[in-house]
Amino acid sequence: MTAPDVNALLRQRYGASAPVLADPAILSSEALALLLRHRSVRSFADAPVTDEHVTAITAAAQSAASSSNNQSWSVVEVRDADRRARLVSEAGGSALIADAPVVLLFVADWARASDIAGWHGEPAEAAAYLESTLVGFVDAGIAAQSAVVAAEALGLGTVYLGSLRTRPEVSADEIGLPEGAAVAFGVAIGWPDPADTAGIKPRLPQRAVRSRERYRPIAREDVDAYERELAAYNATQGRAGSWIAQVVARVRDVRGLHGRENARAALERRGLPSR
Ligand SMILES: Cc1cc2nc3c(=O)[nH]c(=O)nc-3n(C[C@H](O)[C@H](O)[C@H](O)COP(=O)(O)O)c2cc1C
Description:
This protein is an alpha+beta fold. The protein has 2 domains: 69 residues, no CATH class; 158 residues, NADH Oxidase (3-Layer(aba) Sandwich). Helices cover 45% and strands 11% of the residues. It is built from 13 helices and 4 strands. It has a 4-stranded antiparallel beta sheet with strand order 1-2-4-3, sandwiched between helices. Helix 4 crosses helix 8. The longest helix is centred in the middle third of the chain and has 24 residues. It is globular, with a radius of gyration of 20 Å. Flavin mononucleotide (FMN) binds next to strand 3.
């Protein structure tokens, strides 16, 4: 097997601001190259993702770190075409949910710990606090990222789906979630359509996200440089659009939340009041 070209991958990820690495142990890392090659896949071939694939992917997810090893997350595998269609039409999910052969719904889950406490005659008062909600969502996110990396290692493509938080009660009902559990997001999985041209999407220059010892606020020239890098990448995909405009639209006002401004009330209705 030929060694991965890590520096070439870094150039794709960062463009002009790419770091250049020289350590042979780093340059020969297949695992690093896999991570650097990540791209979201939104167009899937008509080929099956087997139960063994999902077993392996779930094992990778469960191998991730988890706060106090409480494992306060769950995953619900959805394959049924009608259910996937309803998740799009009723729960506000992305159309990608209907297109992918498998969708994994990652769940922030305090229902399991609450059940265990209940079996032992104890309440589950601490599950109602914001810290617990955060832990459930953080654990779900960490597990999901290991699932995504495992899927990519197997040659599969994935895309995260945050849209299922738009109507969280509907997604929860559709997969029978108990009180104390909420869908954090979905991950659609399938074999990448060979005709899909999506590539390695540039990221902010590393100095924009990485500080030493003390946090360094963003520099405007780094953002402007990134705007140019992303525009050049988007042009290769036949897309226009400005990253700066997107970020501003996201933070400017409540419209940037795309209907998910109801998150606190929705979580409370799911039995996660986040006190
Ligand atoms: C929590 C989360 C939710 C996301 N939701 C969606 C989504 O609903 N639809 C979509 O097309 N992409 C979604 N994405 C994918 C991002 O748009 C994508 O990761 C980002 O544009 C960077 O592109 P890349 O993954 O190809 O590098 C989501 C990603 C994350 C982490």
